[in-house]
Structure formats: C-alpha cells, structure tokens
Amino acid sequence: MPIVRGSLLRALMLPLALAAAAAPLGAQGTVADQGTFRVSVDGRPVGTEEFVIRQTGNGTSTEVVATGRVELSLPSGTLLLHPRLRATGMQSDPVAYQVDVGGDSPSKIVGTIGAGRFSSRVITGSGEQLREYVASQGALVLDEGVAHHYYFLAQRLRNGRVPVIIPRESRQAVATVTSRGEESVDVGGTQASLYHLVVQVPGSGDRHVWVDALNRVMRVEIPDHSYLAVRTTVPR
What is the tens place of the pLDDT at every residue in 183-233? Predict the structure, then answer.
C-alpha cells in the first residue's frame, strides 16, 4: 500500500530531488533501440507506441534514458502516455521515472527510486499527493501499457525472479521470468528468430515478451487484457 507522507521536510525536499533527477542529459548518447509498436486490443488496432532508448557512458558510468509516446483509443476512452525513465550503472538500475497521462483522465507522476523507496509526486485534476512505497534492491520499472520497458528486464535476466515497480498502480511486485527459448515470429511481415520470455506479475496476469539477441523488444502480449504490441519493422 502507498504511504502518504505529510512532513514538511519531505514536502520541501522531494521537489528538489525530482527536479535534479529529471534534468536533461548533456549529450544525446548512442541509440540502443528506437521504433514503433502497433497496439491492438481484442484483435482490433487501437493505436501506437513510439519510443527511443539512448545510452551514454559505460560500466558504472552508464546512463540510459528511455522516452516514449503511447496513444491508444480504447473502449474505455482515449489514453495518452509520455513516459521517461532514467537508469544508471552496469545493471541499468532505475533512478527516476516520469509519466504524463493524457486523454480522458489526465495526471502526472514524477518519482525517484533510491534508498529502498519509490518516492513520487502524483498530480491529478483534484490536486497533488506525495506517495512513497517499497522499492527493493534491483527493482525494475514496468509501467502498465508501456511495451519498451521490457528491454530493461531482458537486459537483466532471462530466467529467475525480479522485483518490479508499477508506477501507475502505485505498487511493487515480484515477477517470475521464464525463458521458452527461440521461436520464429512474424514482425512487420518479416520472420525473425526471437527469444520468448514469460513474465508472471502477481495481480496483472502473464506477459509474453519476445526479444532479439540484443534484448530489443519485438512483441508483447498480455492475454488476460487481450493486449498485443508488435514492432512495425525488425531493426537492423
């Protein structure tokens, strides 16, 4: 359960920490992956997800920034997401996350990850809240409806367990990742040899994720939500 902190000290210091974490990079860096997913729900096209993942530095000085735009027309209404994730170090540990939610229920989450906590400012039409909840060591960010975030999971492991933060649900869960080996998958009209990962997240159903040898995400399927995201083309 999220913990709402009301102390004056935390209220004063959190915006400063968030501003520092969200500061733009001095250089654009190398593009680790970039592309577009076509998204469908219940077998019907509903929109797209565009994204770019850039990396600067190497080793312990590595910094990765992933930004995206998700635009979906769902039966429940229009959903627009603008996520921005910053991660550092050899394991690409997340240190800051922001998502602007547009459409029929606009909101914004601006948060930092560190010292075993995810601390965030949640802004909605009814006001602002400071929230904080546990973020276990080694936790990854997997926001709901953002396919390119699985790049960071595939970089970390192909089999095993890993804590994941789901910011828009204000919770952490422990995901179990299982590899089903290589499969031939159609991506934008091209057959590609991909690695099939099954990611089991308690409370969210299984996610089937297909990645290439560089851990670039090509396809994400969540059967319980009738959700499917497939890259428009196979990257070189």
Answer: 999 999 999 999 999 999 998 889 999 999 999 999 999 999 999 999 999
- What pTM, to 2 d.p., does this model score? 0.87
Beta bridge partners of 153: none
Residue 5 banded pLDDT, cuts 50, 70, 90: very low
Beta bridge partners of 85: 66, 97
Residues facing 156 on adjacent strands: none
The HSE-up count of residue 16 (CA atoms within 13 Å, CB side) is 5
Rounded-to-integer distance, Cα 174 and Cα 111, Å: 20
pLDDT tens-place string over residues 165-196 = 999 999 999 999 999 999 999 999 999 999 99
What are the Cα distances from residue 109, in Å, to 20, 85, 128, 231? Answer: 15, 12, 10, 27
Asked whether the beta carbons of 106 and 120 are under 8 A apart, the reply is no
Spatial CB neighbours of 192, under 8 Å, sequence gap ≥ 6: 184, 185, 186, 212, 218, 234
Among residues 101, 93, 130, 110, which one has the least CA distance to residue 21?
Answer: 110
**Joined tokens for residue 68:** 């995206």
Neighbours of 19 (CB within 10 A): 10
Q: Cα–Cα distance between 225 and 205 in angstroms, integer?
A: 8
Amino acid identity, position 33: D
Report yes or no: 79 and 70 within 8 Å, Cβ to Cβ: yes
The DSSP code for 236 is -
